[in-house]
Amino acid sequence: MAKNRKKKQTSKIPHSNPKAGLSKSQFDYGCTVAQKTMSLLKIDPAFFSMFSKKQKHAMLNFETHPPVFRAMEGNRVPRKYISKIRETIMEYMRTGYIDEEIQLTYMDFVTYGISFICSFQLEYKRGIFTAEQKEAFAGEMMDAVTKFNTLNEQLFENLYSNIWFELGFYSQMNFRTYGFEFHADVFKSKEVAGLNTVRYVVELTSYENDSIYFTHNDVSRKAYRVIASGIRSTYPPAVIIRHCELYSGSESRKEYSIYIQSHVIHRFKERIDNVDPLLRNYAINLSMAATREIVKGPKGHTFMACSMGDFLIGYFPYTVYGDKVFLLSFLPLVSQLVPEGEKLYNILNLGKDELVYLGMDKLSFFATVDFDEIPILKNALIESGIWAIKMEMDETPVYEKAKIDTVKTQFVKNFFEKTEMRRIQSLSEDEWYNNTGDEINVAENEMPETGILNSSE
Predict the structure, then answer these.
(1) pLDDT-derived band of residue 264, with 50, 70 and 90 as boundaries?
(2) Which of 184, 193, 264, 373 has the greatest CB tally within 10 Å of its CB?
C-alpha cells in the first residue's frame, strides 16, 4: 500500500533579523547551536562561555537563510514536484542530524551554524577578541573555520541520500529522469556591513531519456535508455552493465547500456500492484541502481534479477544486441520460467492459467490472503523460496498493513481443497486400476488349472 508520509509535528526554528535585533529566544537558540557548531569544528564548546555577552550578541546578530529548492535554469521540473520534494527534505533537515553525537540537525547547521561561522570570521578580522581569547581558543577556531569546507561530502552524505531517495519517486524511465546539484551561495549581507553569508541551494535537474527502436521477434519496438535517477549531477550518467556481469566466467569489463520498453514498466505496474505509483517508480529505479544479478532459469533462459535492496521481487527477461541490453518484460517469482516458480510448479503442479486465476502473479495476493488457512499453499511458498516476499512485506514499513480479505482467502482455500480432492480421487482410481490389474493377472494364471478359461471358450 501507499507509503505513510504524514507530516511530523516539529518545533519551529526562530529565524533572526539583524534590523529587529535579537530576541531572548533567538539569542538562547543561537548560543545552543553555536556551541554544537564549535563541536563540529573540533573546538571544545566550553570555550563559548569565555565570550562576553557583547561578543556573543555581535556574532549571533545575523540573518538566517533556510535552504532554497528550485529547478536549474533550462531544466524542466514541475512545480508540484519541487514543492513536494522541498516539503519532504525540509522535514528531514529539521529532524535529521548532520552529526548525531552532538545532536546538530541539518536545518540548525544550514541556518544558525553556517551563519555563526561566517560571523565569527568577520568579528575575528575586526579584532573584537582579546589576546587571551585568541591564545586560548579563538586562534585555533579561526584556523578550523578557514579550513572548513561548506560542502563537506561526509557531513552532507545522509542529506544527499534522502534527496536521491525522493527523486526516485518522480523519475520515470520511459519519460524523464531527475537529478540535483547542491551548492552554497556566498553573498554580501544586506543587514550587516562586511559580512559574507551563505545560503544552501538544491537545484533540481531533468534529463529526457533517449529512445531508440530495435527489432525483436520480427517486431519493431521502442526502448528508452535507463538513466541513474537522483544523482548529484547536471547530466546524470546512464546505467550500464559489464560483460563480466552478463556472462559467467568472463573477465571483460566492456560496458553495455541498458534500455527498457514501456511494456516492461506496464507489466511491472500490473504485478507490483499494492504500492503507491510513486513508490513503484522508486522500486524500479532502485533495482537499476543496485548491483545487477544475472540468473539462469530452469529452461535455459537468462534473467536480470529485480530487487528492492535485498528484497527480490521478480525478474527481467532481456536480449543483447551489440553493446545494448534490452529489457523485454517483467516476470513475477511465481512464473514457471524462473527458479522459484519452477519449484512451486513441481510442488503444486499449477500452470500459468491457474496462477493468474488465483491472482498469485500480483504482489497484493501475498498481503491479503490468510495463509494460515491454506497450509498446503504456505508450505509450498516456503519450500520454493517465494515466502520471503510475504516476510519482507510484513517487516518493511513502506507497506501499510493490509487487511486480510476473507472472501479472497476462502476462494483460494476452496480452490486448493478441490484440487487436493481431485488429486486424491485420481490417486484412488490409479490404485483401483492397479489393484484390479493385479487380480486379473492372478486369475488368468489360475484359470487354466480350474478349467474356467476352457469352459468359457
Answers:
(1) very high
(2) 264
Element (H, E) at 392: helix 387-395
Higher pLDDT, 14 or 303: 303
Contact between 400 and 1 under an 8 Å Cβ cutoff? The reply is yes
Burial category of 108 from C-beta neighbours within 10 Å (exposed 0-12, middle 13-18, buried 19 and up) = buried
| Residue 48, burial from CB neighbour count under 10 angstroms (0-12, 13-18, 19+) | buried
pLDDT recorded at residue 148: 87
Of 1-15, 148-162, 253-267, 415-429, minimum mean pLDDT range: 1-15
Does pLDDT of 10 surpass 60? no
At 314, phi and psi to the nearest 5? 165, -165
User: Is 438's pLDDT higher than 90?
Assistant: no
Instruction: Write down the residue that cell numbers 514457471 correspond to.
Output: 336
DSSP assignment string, 273-326: -SS-HHHHHHHHHHHHHSPPPEEE-TTS-EEEEEEETTEEEEEEEEEEETTEEE
Query: Any idea where the domains of the chain sit in the sequence?
Result: 24-207, 239-331, 337-442
d(CA 98, CA 162): 13
Would you give the DSSP letter of residue 209? Answer: P
Assess whether pLDDT exceeds 70 at residue 368.
Answer: yes
Give 299's contacts (C-beta < 8 A, 6+ positions apart): 337
Burial of 35 (0-12, 13-18, 19+ CB in 10 A): buried
Residue 228 grid coordinates? 541513474
Instruction: Report which of 195, 157, 133, 148 is spatially closest to residue 37, judged by C-alpha positions.
Output: 148
Polymer length of the chain: 457
pLDDT tens digits, 97-141? 999 999 999 999 999 998 899 889 888 888 888 888 988 998 999
Residue 94 has pLDDT above 80, yes or no: yes
Tell which CATH classification among 3.40.30, 3.30.2310, 1.10.3860, 3.90.1010 matches the domain 239-331.
3.30.2310
CA–CA gap between residue 125 and residue 139 (Å, rounded): 11
Cβ burial, residue 253 (10 Å; 0-12/13-18/19+): exposed
Beta bridge partners of 136: none
Long-range contacts of 162-166 (CB under 8 A, 24+ apart): 162/88, 162/89, 162/92, 162/96, 163/85, 163/89, 163/202, 163/230, 163/232, 164/229, 164/230, 164/231, 164/232, 165/230, 165/282, 166/85, 166/88, 166/89, 166/230
> What values do phi and psi take at 198, rounded to 5?
-125, 135
Say what the pLDDT of residue 424 is: 76
Q: Which of 219-233, 304-318, 355-369, 437-451 has the lowest mean pLDDT?
A: 437-451
